[in-house]
Amino acid sequence: MRSSTRWTVAVMVVLVALGVALWAELGDDGDAGTGPKDPGTARDRRDVDTPEALAGPRARADLAPCPTPGVGEGPEALRGITLECAGDGAMVDVAQALAGRTVVLNLWAYWCAPCAAELPAMAEYQRRAGPQVTVLTVHQDENETAALLRLAELGVRLPTLQDGRRLIAAALRVPNVMPATVVLRADGTVADVLPRSFDNADDIAAAVDPSIGVPG
Fold it and tell me: How far is CA 170 from the centre of its chain?
């Protein structure tokens, strides 16, 4: 075998070995991925996201509290789903928390660039809409620390549920895209599913308000 050929083969072996090592590292590290995990292996949060580890990021994010139980049983599709409120770690019965409320659910993940661009618009929409609408964000990745730090960076203090297994999206049959927005009427029925991003609060209002009876 010529020396140049042997050198080429050696380089290829090293590259393959490095690729395998990198693949293994990404598979073990909950932070390394930049996209969705296999739903069959997903968890609500990483093991390292303990209450102690989350205390600092929670203080920085300073999120609004998640909704308390409303009137009625809430959306039927969401009954039986209990998730953590990212702001304080309290467990939330999702259906009960949404019962009797007109709700805009915004599904996102910390690594999603369009989500980060849209979240401030969601916060502005909530400010304009006032108490007649509840905007609740749903973080769909196991890395809760990264979610809190992203919200702190953006200055978005909307209440947030930690849903690494994407239970809400599955229950409401939301397309597998992010961001996505689900509009729920006060009676718990789905008014609209919007698998798209929004540039500003005006665009959100134009898409959401007609479906919940808010005049333009």
Answer: 13
- 20, 26, 32, 38 alpha-carbon torsion, rounded to 10°: 130
Residue 80, C-beta contacts closer than 8 angstroms, at least 6 positions apart: 95
* Kind of pairing between the strands at 180-184 and 190-194: antiparallel
CATH of domain 51-212: 3.40.30.10
The domain spans of the chain are: 1-30, 51-212
What 8-state DSSP symbol labels residue 174? -
Q: What is the mean pLDDT of each run of 10 residues along the chain (216 residues)?
A: 48 39 34 44 86 97 96 94 97 97 98 98 97 97 98 98 98 96 96 96 95 69
